[in-house]
Amino acid sequence: MSDTKKKHQITPNEPKAFLNRELSWLAFARRVLSLVEDEELQLLERVKFAGIMGMLHDEFFMKRMSGLKRQMLKKPRKRSLDGRTPDKEFELCRNELLDQDAALANAIEEQLRPALAREGIPILKYEGLTEAQRRKLREYFRRSVEPILTPLAVDAEHPFPFISNLGLNLAILLPDQKADKERFVRLKVPDNRPRWVPVPGTDGYVPLEQVIAANLDLTFQTPPREVYPFRVTRGIKGAQSRLTDLEQDDPLRAPGVIVQLVSHELKARKFAGGVRLHVNPSMPKKRLKWFTEQLAVTGDDVYPMASLGRAADLLQFDVPNRDDLRAPLYTPATHKRLRGLVERGPGAIFDEIRQGDILVHHPYHSFDSSVLEFIEAAAGDPNVLAIKLTIYRTSSQSPIVQALVEAARHGKQVAVLVEITARFDEAPNIAWGKLLEEEGVHVTYGAEQLKTHIKVALVVREEGGGVRRYAHFGTGNYHTGTARVYEDIGLLTCDEALCDDAAAVFNALTGATAHGKYQKLIVAPIAMRERFQAMIKREIEHARANRAAGIRAKMNQLQDPDMIRELYRASQEGVPIILYVRGLCCLRPGVPGLSDNIRVVAVVGRFLEHSRIYSFTNGGEVEYYIGSADWMQRNLDRRVETIAPVLDPAIGRQLGEILDVYDNDNYSAWDCGPGGIYTRRRPAKDEPPRAAQQVLIDRASEGGDPADGVKTPGITPRSIAADG
Question: What is the Cα–Cα distance from 367 to 285, expressed in whole angstroms?
């Protein structure tokens, strides 16, 4: 065969070497959709995942589709990593979203609603109710709903009203008594009323908007001619770009300015341009055209609304006393080294940490009896002099915030770095910051031009005439709510060098000074990219010398082109690589000559995979790292991130065993192919299912640590070359 007929071998530097970021993210949504359609899953779990699908789509439109629309307006237009124009990306994403919308609607109508009906908890249609049921719901509407409704008319004297982001609305056409015309009225479905209204005399429910639509004659004194549910999704630009502009103008800004700016950004976000109009598909084309003109959206922004309207509200479909339709209740276990701390007296958790580092794996290990106990013990311990902590996202009535308040009241030095540009959590984070300031806590709001994403807590304690520092390095936020449903790793340590580094990071952030050199901690954007690239190159040298080599990395997302190119080069040199990536992944695994030795695995289950674990075989002396950073450009270049080395070999082995559990999952793991298509693993005939999360639950529930008892082999050189 002539050279001209040989198949072109993709190189790491060309667009074909990469998967599209947006489409890869939508592939993650596809994996969630598969759980909605999975008849082996408990019914109310499937309903929950349908709600998660709605939430994922809402966020994708606000963040990614709005970003593509902005790019389409720019000249010249920048191409994506895989070489596509914004117009083409938008088109492909729109087609995929329409397809997923249709699949979700079909799953709800053809699978979930019939299954709910069989279980005696149906989501009914108002028109199918009995006359007696409708009378009772009409009375409910009159007493509890109608008094809070606010109809807004559109006519010569009343312009088209502003439609808030993600709200559920009714477009109402009323007969005009003064002329043979129609009047348009917009009515917002109130969010402070239950979306799923119990149907009297049954265990079923009916959507609130249907109750409202059927009883509008009580509001308008005449039945409407037509009623169409609709909702608008608005894009967000985020506060970070405006913060950068401000910092360039005033690098010595007062601390209150950043809070004011983010507050203004939140107000502006409410009025951002529309990027999606969800509307009942029965609306006539002529009327729809007028509607889109009023909302300043185009035909490409119009998406058909399914019968249940706002799918995200299925997360609120809370049916009492039907635990048989949910995943089995799981109570997180207390780590075996942290049991009985109360009986052991004040300071017991610090005594235990001094005996050796402790690895906690949430939600299998209880967050409350580990991380929260660490903070609360520090707050109440008279020997503790200072507490420092980062808040990226936290929960309503956060016990961690309350513990910090108590510590400040007891005279301890408390410093908290609150990142108030954490998208979708800006408002609560501003509120937490103000509360802490009022209680005497030293509060710092982020770093100049960088988002602070680190998950670190530091405690300074007086011991034996001196002081000792204790630290927690985590992969998740200090959020007691998400700690029950997010999978995360945390390390409790009093290693002197790591604690010195943690203190230096806090000093640099709170003092707004330059970062120095760190002994063991890897910090972005100072040196993280260089350190990771150096470790990948080290594995290449080991492989060339026929020493043990390999990389295993678990993260949320993988997008950084330089890191991907380094992984391709390592693969080409024979380094076996397994990447456990929950969400989007721009690397193409299993491409001949490019990534033969790379596998990409995604696990989707009842908990959101969120931990970041990095492992390098290093000639047989395996190194492990955990921390806050994914391999994304934003994490490596535009955020303050920390990655901590695991210094205890026993804890390193635990992390390796946890990764083995994911690699041996034959039920909830998905393998990514060269074209970005994910295939779900299924057990072979007569093979028991091994869902990673269930394996870890079972081990923790049996009284051990999640990694206890793992017998599966770890990664070996060249072991996966042909297994992509």
Answer: 53
**Consecutive 10-residue runs of the chain (724 residues): their mean pLDDT?**
59 96 97 97 97 96 93 88 96 98 97 98 96 97 96 80 92 79 90 96 97 96 91 72 40 45 50 85 92 91 92 94 92 94 89 97 96 96 95 77 92 87 60 77 76 92 93 93 93 98 92 83 96 98 98 98 98 98 98 97 96 98 97 94 97 97 97 97 94 94 60 29 29
Structure-block tokens of residue 506: 């806090």
Residues 6 or more apart in contact with residue 716 via CB below 8 angstroms: 548, 550, 576
Question: Beta partners for 197?
Answer: 206
- The residue count of the chain comes to 724
Residues 6+ apart with CB under 8 A from 422: 392, 393, 429, 451
Whether the CB-CB separation of 12 and 581 falls below 8 Å is answered with no
Q: Would you say 470 and 330 are in contact if contact means Cβ atoms under 8 Å apart?
A: no
Residue environment code for 152-181, b if the CB has 16+ CB neighbours within 10 A, otherwise e: beeeeeeebbebebbebbbbbebeeeeeee
Taking residue 466's Cβ as centre, other Cβ atoms within 10 Å add up to 7
d(CA 518, CA 678): 40
Determine phi and psi for 645, rounding to 5 degrees. Answer: -75, 150
pTM over cut 0.85: yes
Q: How many CB atoms lie within 10 A of CB 441?
A: 24
Three-state SS across 201-248? CCCCEEEHHHHHHHCCHHHHCCCCCEEEEEEEEECCCCCHHHHHHHHH
The alpha carbons of the chain give a radius of gyration, in whole angstroms, of: 28
Q: What SS3 class is residue 141? A: helix
Q: Is 453 a catalytic residue?
A: yes
User: Which residues on adjacent β-strands are paired with residue 615?
Assistant: 552, 624
User: Which amino acid type is present at position 117?
Assistant: A
Instruction: Dump strand ranges (E) for 504-661.
Output: 522-524, 551-555, 577-581, 598-603, 608-609, 613-616, 623-627, 639-645
Give the span between the Cα atoms of 627 and 577, in whole angstroms. 20
Under the phi-then-psi rule, with left for phi > 0, alpha for psi from -120 to 50, and beta for the rest, what region is 486? beta
Q: Which position among 335, 365, 453, 610 bears the catalytic label?
A: 453
